[in-house]
Amino acid sequence: MSSNAPSTQETPTPDTPTQDASTQATHQGGCHCARIRFTATLPDALTSTQLTDCNCSICVKNGYHFLYLPNSSVTFIRGEHEAKKYFFHKQRIAHYFCAECGTSVWAESVDPEFYAGWKALNVRAFDDVDMSVLKFEKVDGKSH
Ligand SMILES: [Zn+2]
Q1: Per-residue pLDDT tens digits for 55-92
Q2: How far does residue 86's CA lie from ligand 1's centre (Å)?
Q3: Distance from the alpha carbon of residue 100 to the mean position of ligand 1, in angstroms
Q4: In terms of C-beta density within 10 A (0-12 exposed, 13-18 middle, 19 or more buried), how is residue 124 classed?
Q5: How far is the CA of 18 from the centre of ligand 1 (A)?
Q6: CA-CA distance, 91 to 68, in Å (whole number)?
Q7: Which of 62, 96, 110, 143 is deepest in the core (most CB within 10 A)?
Q8: How far is residue 26's CA from residue 46's CA, in Å, rounded to a whole number?
């Protein structure tokens, strides 16, 4: 038998409530006019979560700071199916925004071989978010 060293992988196990939920953090968010509303459960506190600070064309235009979560950690209260989708370049990522107020709320892949089952939430859409205390990781999306 192999010895099972404690796993350090960061992928949350879907639908399995963990006994130690002390580091989990649940946030509500949505677009500016509140037609889109969601709840997101993070494995760690938002302030200790690395968010993207990407220089690619869409991230700069939309002010995206993405937080990646499995679909099971994001629950839409309303508006998921009313959101407009924008595609460009390889057409494999749907960028969702509110048709009413224009807030860029999230993005997700439509390519089953590219980040299937994950959502990229724009942390700017979280309620009462204090951008000044968050941690960002520079991503050079422009060159890719
Ligand atoms: Zn809206």
Answers
A1: 999 999 999 999 999 999 999 999 999 999 999 999 99
A2: 15
A3: 5
A4: middle
A5: 33
A6: 19
A7: 96
A8: 9
